[in-house]
Design goal:
Layout: E1 3-6, E2 21-24, E3 27-33, H1 48-65, E4 73-80, H2 86-93, E5 103-108, E6 118-125
Parallel strand pairs: 4-5
Antiparallel strand pairs: 1-2, 2-3, 3-6, 4-6
Length: 128
């Protein structure tokens, strides 16, 4: 099975030794996205809702660069520094996904890169 690297300037560049996504066959493994604006590589704001929207926009750009959409995601992992924002994530996520929704985990963590409040990664299955 061949492996290819997915990259787009419409999402933040990798800030470490990783790729934005890796495609193996029809499956795309999306690296975690934090709320960096792609053009400046700066945090969008300190507001949790704005950070969440930026993360979904970043994921959307990487999905599209791979030939898919957010709705092709089969697994989503959401990491938050404050799980009390869970309802807000659900509300925002409902604007980006339609049923059937992907499998999902929501995990509380002590800290995320660059002081982000949220990070999301996942797995995308491209249409045949």
């Amino acid at each position: 099975m061949s492996k290819s690297i997915i990259h787009t300037d419409q999402a933040p560049a990798a800030i470490g030794t990783y790729s934005q996504a890796v495609k193996a066959g029809n499956t795309v493994y999306l690296s975690g996205q934090i709320p960096l604006k792609p053009d400046t590589m700066e945090m969008v704001s300190d507001d949790f809702s704005e950070q969440t929207v930026q993360v979904f926009e970043n994921l959307k750009a990487v999905c599209e660069a791979s030939g898919g959409t957010l709705n092709d995601m089969v697994k989503v992992n959401i990491f938050m520094t404050d799980l009390s924002h869970f309802a807000k994530v659900n509300e925002i996520m409902s604007g980006y996904f339609r049923e059937p929704y992907p499998a999902r985990a929501a995990i509380g963590v002590a800290q995320l890169p660059r002081g982000a409040q949220i990070e999301i990664d996942g797995i995308l299955r491209l249409p045949e």
